[in-house]
Amino acid sequence: MTNLSRSPFTDEIEQEEPPREFSMPHFTSFKEDEDLERHLKHYQSAMILYRNNDALMCKIFATTLQEYSSYRSIKKKSDYLFDVKKNPNESLRDYVRRFKADKARIVGCSDSIASAAFQKGLPVDHPLFGKSIMKEDLTLADSFTLAEKHALWDEACQCTFKDLKKYSTSPP
Q1: Is the Cα torsion angle 141, 131, 97, 111 positive or negative in sign?
Q2: pTM of the model
Q3: pLDDT of 57-73, one tens digit each?
Q4: What does residue 153 show for φ and ψ, rounded to 5 degrees?
Q5: Which of 16, 67, 95, 126 could form a disulfide linkage to 55, CB 3.0–4.6 angstroms apart?
Q6: CA–CA separation, 122 vs 84, rounded Å?
C-alpha cells in the first residue's frame, strides 16, 4: 500500500515548485479510447510558456492522465503464467482455454516459457503431466494439441462411466 501513495517522480521533480505566475490551464483528462498523440499535442500547446520547465511539465501532464490510469489494466509479465494452475474440478479443456486467454494478455511471452508454465500448472497425477515431462522439445502448440487429445479422452471416459453407472443402477 505504501507504493500506491508514493509519487512516481524523482525527489528533484517532486520538490520543484511551480512558478508564482503559473495558472493551471484547463485540461480534459485523457481516456484510453482517445488519441494519445492528439492529447499530447493539446497539452504541449497549452503549456507552451512552460516548455523549458521539465519538472512542471511532468507534474502537470500526470494530472491529465488520471482518468486513463484508472481504466488501464495492470500489465502482467510472463512469470504470471507460473501461477496459473488447473483447478481440481476444472476440465482440461477449460484449463487450456483459460491458460491461452491469460497468455494472450501478456505481451512478449515466449512459447518456451509458456510451455513450461502450462506443464507446471497441471496436477502431477494427471496423465498429461507425465507425457509432457517425458517428451523432449515439446512446443507450446504441441502441448495444446496433446491437451486437446487428453480432453477428448477424458470426456469420452466420463460419458462411458456415466452410461455404465446409469445401466448398472437400473433394474433389469
Answers
A1: negative
A2: 0.49
A3: 888 888 887 564 444 44
A4: -65, -45
A5: 16
A6: 9
